[in-house]
């Protein structure tokens, strides 16, 4: 069904035609201006403090973080994490250029497959697009190099995130996404899916007892580079 057919059906249900030109202009301006909501003061700090806040919030939400100075140290950090969790060396990895460039060949004990996740996968390694300090949230837009299934199916998700991609507030993460997704045809582009992940999956629906891994990974580990 076309866009016009869908909108036409909505208008018929509302028993009205198209909006007047002034109302259309007002709505168009609001969409283009991206108005700000209230932004927590805790995120209005220098970048090193934003990174520290991001780490603290991830850990408060049952996630874990390890910092490494250089990207080349990511494979060793991953090996140490898997061993510490009594997990095997096999994992599925996002086919992202930044992950592909890491020195995996130097660590032959790790067994990797570059693809989207399947239900039988135990560990995924995902590329982090951005981190949001105010809540310790990861922004993970869908892309060929960042399959969404890696965020949902494996029991353990490891996200590799550069420290310079940590921002203070949600609005700044959306600004980053808009700025880096431009095309000449439409003037803008958004992914078909953007996941905002704050800690491992959890639920307390049954008897108010917290259960990790209720709807996705039960472990979330961030390797923060830089």
UniProtKB/TrEMBL annotation:
It comes from the Bacteria. SUPFAM superfamilies: NagB/RpiA/CoA transferase-like. InterPro entries: FTHF_cligase-like_sf, LUD_dom, NagB/RpiA_transferase-like. Residues 116-225 form the LUD domain. Pfam families: LUD_dom. Coiled coil: none annotated. This is Lactate utilization protein C. It comes from Teichococcus coralli.
């Amino acid at each position: 069904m076309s866009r016009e057919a869908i909108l036409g059906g909505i208008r018929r249900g509302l028993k009205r035609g198209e909006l007047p030109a002034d109302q259309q202009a007002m709505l168009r301006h609001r969409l283009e201006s991206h108005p700000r909501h209230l932004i927590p003061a805790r995120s209005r700090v220098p970048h090193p403090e934003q990174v520290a806040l991001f780490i603290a919030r991830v850990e408060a939400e049952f996630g874990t973080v390890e910092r490494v100075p250089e990207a080349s140290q990511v494979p060793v950090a991953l090996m140490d994490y898997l061993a510490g969790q009594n997990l095997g060396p096999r994992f599925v990895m996002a086919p992202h250029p930044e992950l592909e460039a890491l020195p995996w060949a130097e660590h032959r004990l790790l067994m990797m497959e570059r693809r989207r996740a399947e239900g039988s996968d135990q560990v995924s390694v995902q590329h982090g697009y951005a981190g949001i300090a105010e809540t310790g949230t990861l922004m993970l837009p869908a892309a060929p190099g960042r399959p969404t299934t890696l965020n949902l199916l494996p029991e353990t998700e490891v996200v590799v995130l550069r420290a310079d991609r940590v921002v203070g507030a949600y609005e700044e993460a959306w600004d980053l996404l808009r700025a880096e997704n431009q095309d000449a045809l439409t003037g803008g582009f958004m992914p078909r899916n953007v996941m905002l992940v704050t800690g491992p999956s959890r639920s307390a629906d049954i008897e108010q007892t917290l259960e990790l891994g209720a709807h996705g990974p039960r472990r979330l580990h961030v390797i923060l580079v830089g």
